[in-house]
Amino acid sequence: MGYEITRQIRDCDGKRESFFALAQKVFGLSFKEWFENGFWTDCYIPYAICEGDRVVANVAVNRMQFESRGTVRNYVQLGTVMTDPEYRGRGFARQLMETVIREWEDRCDGIYLFANSDVLDFYPRFGFKESLEYEWRMVRKDSPQDLGSGREAPGPVFRKMDLRKQEDMARFCRCLDAGSPFSALQMRDNLGLVMFYCGDSLKDNIFYFNGQQDGRTCGMVCVGEQEGDTFFCLDFFGGEKISLKEAAEAAAPAGTRKIVLGFSPHREQLEMFKSSWEMECAPQKSDVTLFVRGGHEWPDSRRLRFPELSHT
């Protein structure tokens, strides 16, 4: 039996189940529930080499749209790059990379991916170069007890969401549609990718503030997780007219001394932190490396980063 490249995985039962099994085998990732809940959209396009219905290698195209300073750019992010251990050494990954680049390089503003440390020498063969991502961190100057549930002053109060509940899911989608108000580089129109995280590994780390604006109900969602005295604020979504400082201090649990942002904030939002926080922007330390391909301006030229929830 020969091999073929297919782009039709989602709607082919046999190939889709084989793809699920390979992702679990190689990365320990589960796509099944994500698919069954309807979040696999046309933005996620696996290019797979198949032997019959068996997926033996894959490179996935993720169609991404980002907005910054009123300009919208369309990128392709590559992900789920994998080969079945039984089929390695046959050039399948190279064949898929060449196919994807050939078909997409003239249809987008750039191609990028995040690579693990054991494959850093692979992607430069296809014209990719390493790029930096910058991370903003805030360290509290004084007592952290006035944050979150320990805050005495009036202000927004976030509660935990349960996206299994229809009303919470509706609120979440409404806020996501409103965008990320504090992000200088925000992902647009990709509920499927956000739900890969928020429907699984981050499902217990989603919080909601229900405010009032112009006489109508609106709100804001925070996706964040606490480790020790550090609050990793992955992103905010919604149209509530509050500052990043107000939102971050309200979402962070009492006792938080450091806030790490999973996105690049608008500079004017940072000014509000100066009275009570020390701020630092530095290249992100991570176990993955950003590789980019294409000639136009990438986020690192403006000390930005792709939002954490946009990574594949």
Automatic annotation (TrEMBL):
InterPro entries: Acyl_CoA_acyltransferase (IPR016181), GNAT_dom (IPR000182), YpeA/RimI_acetyltransf (IPR050680). Gene3D superfamilies: 3.40.630.30. Residues 7-143 form the N-acetyltransferase domain. Pfam families: Acetyltransf_9. The keyword Secreted does not apply. The keyword Transferase applies. Keywords: Acyltransferase, Transferase. GO terms for molecular function: acyltransferase activity, transferring groups other than amino-acyl groups. This is GNAT family N-acetyltransferase. It comes from Candidatus Lachnoclostridium pullistercoris.
